Amino acid sequence: MPRGDKSAYTDKQKRQAAHIEESERKEGRSESAAERIAWATVNKQDGGGLRKKATKKAAKKTAKKATKKAAKKAAKKSTAKKTARKTAKKAVKKTARKAAKKTVRKTTARKAAKKTARKAPARKTAKKAAKKTARKSPARVAAGKKAARTRARRSGRNGASA
Q: Which segments of the chain have a pLDDT < 50?
């Protein structure tokens, strides 16, 4: 299609362009500028010629459906394998993280105990300090107590109804 060919545009788009061109000419623009503005406006509104797009859209849809079907089939086959792998990886990571946290806690508690043992004259104070650093945070303690209360309440309800 040569440049400037308007065969891809519908009759409605051509009428719109003609109308816009007329109004631009009335405003005092040159004929070439008015035509350029008119077609630019039609392109902006509709995204180009619609006559050609209708056939392109239909072809795209059928191609899209075919690729979607193929993708679904492939996904069904590999989904079970992927989920099994993912859960295994997650479990391994979790256990590794927990072990790392425990060792970090222990080493920090030991280091703190050693420092206090060097500084303090008595060993009792060193042991107390080590225990304090190894203890749970107050927020965790409170959360644990709350959970215990709710469990007690629930067990009380279940026992009353049985």
A: 162
